[in-house]
Each structure stands twice: as structure tokens, then as C-alpha cells.
Amino acid sequence: MLENKSTLFEYLLYLGDTSLILSHRLSEWCGHGPILEQDIALTNITLDILGQARFWYQLAAEESDTNLDEDQIAYFRESNEFRNLLLVEQPNVDWGQTVLRQYMYDCFITTYLQALTHSSDSKIAEIALRSVHESQYHYRWSSDWLLRLGQGTSESKAIMQESLNQLWRFHQEPIVAASFEVEMAAQGIAPDLETIKTEYLDKLHTGISKAGLVVPDDGRLLAGGKQGVHTEHLGYILAEMQHVQRTYPGLEW
Amino acid sequence: MSTNNWPLWEVFIRSKNGLQHRHVGSLHASDATTAVENARDVYTRRMEGTSIWVVRSEDITASDPQFKSEFFDPAESKIYRHPTFFELPDEVKHM
User: Which pLDDT band, with edges at 50, 70 and 90, does A73 fall under?
Assistant: First the structure.
């Protein structure tokens, strides 16, 4: 699907895929939240993020100059054509780990979307502005929970520290520019990642230290999602997410 | 879902400026801040509100149902207490 497509198309896939895959992961919590009110809270967040994915895909479909639509973009690509961040495809382990993954994502995406509201592409700027308000609320939610669990019992603190140790390897990927981002930044469409790096990392570190957790050593940092090189988990997500459309193409309900 | 011992909170929502907060329901939360956030997620998903109040259910003092008749029956059939003899100007809303 990526043959003969513009760099802008690929960039929009990156934005859309990251949202779609995260919303799929979060949707797995629906009906399994630790308490009814939080089940609803997380499902609201899930739907916000799914909505953001749709906006990016609709724009990508428009940009593709073919008769692609958002569903085809979501359901008829293989894992190596997905451009999402590795962080968002990581499986849910428990509530604490889900909160931590969300916190890391929110630190990045709030900073990123804020910068993206200044995009030279007015449609992108508009979607970014709409999305950033949602994401700021998500950030409030995830940082509250991070604080609560980090400063909670010794058990909750240990779970948060372990989750941080497991997920920390993904924290650099968002700010390492892929070639499509470099090109988009040169045109003023995407933010220059150098300009948001410090704000993102400061935000990330502040919440972690407030929660009383220890930032792990960087060790082996992972990246590659933006190039289509994914962890094994993405294949399973796609199998589940795509099988209905692939069995009955164009099916509506 | 776990059963939990979080306290119960009553939720009041103001649907728009100028109107009063109205009781919409209750929920569980560990503290006041979380109660407001839970209320936002549970009760304002469809643009129902512009402001939220929460109060611990146990802080509400209620009338005793046992004294229902002596509390409320005397108000029956006192038509002169109803201001039905005034014409309300159209500009006055929400009366």
C-alpha cells in the first residue's frame, strides 16, 4: 500500500497507526477495569485515541489520491507497513503497567501535538489542536495514577518500578526522527524533534521522580517501529483486529 | 471488577452557566480529586456539564423517612403558598 505514495502519506500513517494500535491495546481493558468508574475512564480515553486515529487516516486517504478509505488503511496492511511506535504495541500486563505505558505516551504526545498545532499544513494543525485537548486530559489521568501507585503501597510501588524498567527501552523512539519526519520537518509540516526533546524528557522525568520511582539506566534502547520493524506483538494485534475485514472485505455493521 | 472500600460520593452537575447544579447520581472514589475526575468520565461524556461538584455521601444529613408525614403533609392544600397569581415575564427563564 505504500508504493508510489508520498512522504506525507507515510507521515500520516505514523500518526494514525500509533493512535490506532494504542487504542486497540487499551480497548482490551474494556469490561476488565479494576473498578467501574475507571473502566469507563479508560474506555473514554480509548475512544478519544481511536477518534484521533480516524482523523489521521481520513486525511491520509485524502492525500493518497486513490480511492483508499480509512478502513482499508487500517485493515489491509501487513505489520511491516505499520509505522506506529513500539511502545504502544506492548501487551497489557496489569493496571500499573498500562498506566505507566499511558503516562510515557502522554508525556510525548501532549508535547508533540502542541508543537504540531503550528504545522504549515492547516488540516494537520487543526487535528492536532483538537487532539491535544483530549491528550492533556489523558496526561492528567495517567500522571495522577502514576503518582498514586508510585506513592501507594510497597506492592504498587514495586509494580510501577518493574513496569518502568520494562518499558524504559522504548522512551527514546518518539524523539528519534525517521526519514519521513526529517522531510516533513523541513517543509514545516512536522515539528523538528530537537525542539521538543527537552520538554518531553523533562516532563517524563518529573512525573517519575514525583512518584518516587528510579529512572533506569538507558541500557539497550529500542526503535524501528517508524520503519516498520516491529516487536512480535504487533502481528497478534493485527490478526485479531483485521481478520473480520480480511475474511469479509468491505463488511459493514 | 474488584469490590472496593472506596467511599461513596454524590455528584452534582451544572449543565450551563446560570443554572444550578443538579444531583445526577453517585460513584465510588478514593478521594475528592478522583471523585471529580470519575464524575467527569461517568456523567459528562455527552456534554452534560460545565461544572461538577462532589460531596461525600456520608456528609449529607437527610430528613428521616419516619417523620415524613409531619414534615411534609402540612404543606398539602395550602394553595396560597403557590405564586400562581403572577404573570411571569417571558425573559424570566428556568422558574
Answer: very high
3-state class percentages of chain A: helix first, strand second, coil last, to nearest 5: 70, 0, 30
Nearest by CB to A37, from B2, B27, B33: name it: B27
Q: Is the pLDDT of residue A250 over 90?
A: no
What pLDDT digit, counting tens, does each position of B20-70 carry?
A: 999 999 999 989 999 999 999 999 988 889 999 999 999 999 999 998 888
Q: What is the number of other CB atoms lying within 10 angstroms of the CB of residue A123?
A: 14
Q: Say how far residue A79 (Cα) sits from the centre of its chain.
A: 16
Q: Which one has a higher pLDDT value, A5 or B95? A: A5
The verdict on ipTM greater than 0.90 is: no
- Determine contact: A37 vs chain B, CB below 8 A: yes
Cell of A167: 518499558
What is the C-alpha separation between A213 and A168, in angstroms, rounded? 12
Query: For cell 502481528, what's the residue?
Result: A235
Residue B40: closest CA among chain A residues belongs to which residue? A41
What the block records as the C-alpha cell of B27 is 460513584
What amino acid is encoded at A41 in this protein?
A
Other CB atoms within a 10 A radius of the CB of residue B87 amount to 5
What's the CATH code, domain A7-247? 1.20.1260.10
> Among partner residues A34, A41, A148, which is closest to B41 by beta-carbon distance?
A41
Local confidence band at B82 (pLDDT 50, 70, 90 cut-offs):
confident
Nearest Cα of chain B lies from the Cα of A213 at a distance, in angstroms, of 22
Shortest distance, CA A17 to any CA of chain B (angstroms)? 25
Q: Which residues of B touch A141 (CB under 8 A)?
A: 37
Per-residue confidence (pLDDT) for residue A82, from 0 to 100 = 98
What is the bridge-based pairing of β-strands B22-28 and B8-14? antiparallel
| Whole-prediction pTM | 0.88
Domain ranges of chain A: 7-247
B64 C-beta neighbours (distance < 10 Å), count = 8
